[in-house]
Specification:
By secondary structure, the protein is mainly β. The chain has 2 helices and 18 strands. Strand 16 and strand 17 form a beta hairpin.
Length: 249
C-alpha cells in the first residue's frame, strides 16, 4: 500500500494553527485542541496508524511544514509494529521543514521490528538558523523471545545546506546487535535529537547505558540502550537531563 500525507502549521496572532491536513490510509492525522492557559499555544497533532502497519510492501510518506514562528508537536498514539509480508520491504518517510523562530517536537511511540520484517525509515529535516527540533525514536528488536527482523533508519538534519546530523541505525544483524559499539546485546535502542536556536554545541557526556554527543553546528544527540523500553527510556531521560544541565552553565 502506498500513502502520502501532508501537514502544515502557521502562526496566526501568536497561535499555531493547522492550515493543511491531508492523509491517506493507513495513516491518519488527528489535531488536538490547545490546552487552555498554556504559556505557548502549540499545534498538537496525533499520528494514528492502522494495527496492521507497517506491513511489508507499505510505502508511507509524510511532508510537514512549520511556518515562521509556529510550533508543532507531532505525537504517536500507539507503537508501530513492523510486520513481514509478501513483496518489497516496508518504508516510512517523514520530510520536515522548520522555518525561522519555529519549532518541531516529534515523539512517535516505539517501533517494534518483528521476526522476518524488513522495514526502513527516513527522517529528513531542514532547519532555519533560529529553528528548534526535538525528536525521539525508540526501536525494539523483536517481541519478547523473538529475534528481530531487518531494520534500517536514517536521520538527516540540515541547516542552511550544512549537515547537523547524518546517521543510519540498523537492527537485525546478530553480530552487529551484540557488538559493544551498537546494542551490546540489548533489545531496545533510544535516540533523541536536541537542537535549539542560538546554542553552541554541547559537551559530550555519558553514563551507564547512555551517551550525549554534540552535533556539528549546534545541539546534541542523546543515545540510550536497555533490555526493555522502560529502562531505555529512563536512561534516555538521564542523557537529556545532562544536556539541560550543560545549557544552564
Amino acid at each position: 500500500m502506498r500513502a502520502c500525507a501532508r501537514l502544515a502549521v502557521r502562526d496566526r496572532d501568536g497561535r499555531s494553527v493547522v492550515t493543511t491536513l491531508r492523509a491517506q490510509a493507513p495513516l491518519a492525522l488527528v489535531p488536538r485542541r490547545g490546552v487552555a492557559g498554556a504559556a505557548r499555544p502549540d499545534a498538537v497533532v496525533h499520528l494514528v496508524g492502522s494495527a496492521s502497519t507497517p506491513l511489508a510492501g507499505d510505502d508511507v510518506e509524510l511532508d510537514v511544514a512549520v511556518g515562521p514562528g509556529a510550533h508543532l508537536v507531532l505525537i504517536g498514539v500507539a507503537a508501530a509494529v513492523a510486520l513481514p509480508g509478501a513483496g518489497r520491504p516496508s518504508r516510512t518517510v517523514l520530510r520536515c521543514t522548520v522555518a525561522d523562530g519555529a519549532s518541531l517536537t516529534y515523539r512517535p511511540e516505539p517501533t517494534v521490528v518483528t521476526a522476518r520484517a524488513d522495514h526502513e525509515t527516513v527522517l529528513d529535516v531542514t532547519l532555519a538558523p533560529t529553528a528548534s527540533l526535538h525528536t525521539r525514536d525508540v526501536l525494539v528488536a523483536g517481541r519478547t523471545g523473538e529475534r528481530a527482523g531487518r531494520y534500517r533508519g536514517t536521520v538527516h538534519v540540515t541547516e542552511d545546506g550544512l549537515p547537523l546530523l547524518v546517521q543510519t541505525q540498523e537492527l537485525g544483524d546478530p553480530l552487529l546487535d551484540s557488538s559493544p559499539a551498537h546494542l551490546a546485546g540489548h533489545r531496545v535502542l533510544g535516540t533523541e535529537v536536541l537542537v535549539d536556536p542560538g546554542r553552541e554545541p554541547l559537551a559530550a557526556a555519558s553514563g551507564p547505558g547512555w551517551s550525549l554527543s554534540p552535533l556539528a553546528l549546534r545541539g546534541a544527540l542523546a543515545t540510550a540502550v536497555g533490555h526493555d523500553v522502560v529502562t531505555a527510556a529512563n536512561r534516555l531521560a538521564e542523557a537529556v537531563a545532562a544536556a539541560d544541565r550543560a545549557r544552564r552553565r
